[in-house]
């Protein structure tokens, strides 16, 4: 994952954060890998860019875990692409991940801004 505006151009995310963002992207409906990456980039106002070397292994892992399902379809540009969709199990996982994320953000904020 690349974060723009940083001197080292790398932004190490906590384990599972990319998976959570992919699952979130799929709440809007089925999407191919490139579209998921674009959604993350756009949603972060171009601050996060997911490299293919991170995105596709994460998608394959989520598929093995049955959090997403995939099927081959034709894109708008008449190219064959694998489209991913969120499964019911993936929806439950996203809800749990969002809750853990919210707790982590709260805890870190308490540590960084003590009363």
Overview of this structure, please?
This protein has 115 residues and is of the alpha+beta class. The protein has a single domain, classed as Winged helix-like DNA-binding domain superfamily/Winged helix DNA-binding domain (Arc Repressor Mutant, subunit A, Orthogonal Bundle), CATH 1.10.10.10. It is built from 4 helices and 5 strands. It has helices spanning 17-25, 33-43, 52-64, 88-112; strands at residues 2-3, 31-32, 48-49, 68-74, 80-86. The chain has a 3-stranded antiparallel sheet. A hairpin with a 5-residue loop joins strand 4 (68-74) and strand 5 (80-86). Helix 1 packs across helix 4 (88-112). The mean pLDDT is 89.
Descriptive key words:
Arc Repressor Mutant, subunit A; 50% helix; two-stranded antiparallel sheet; alpha+beta; single chain; 3-stranded antiparallel beta sheet
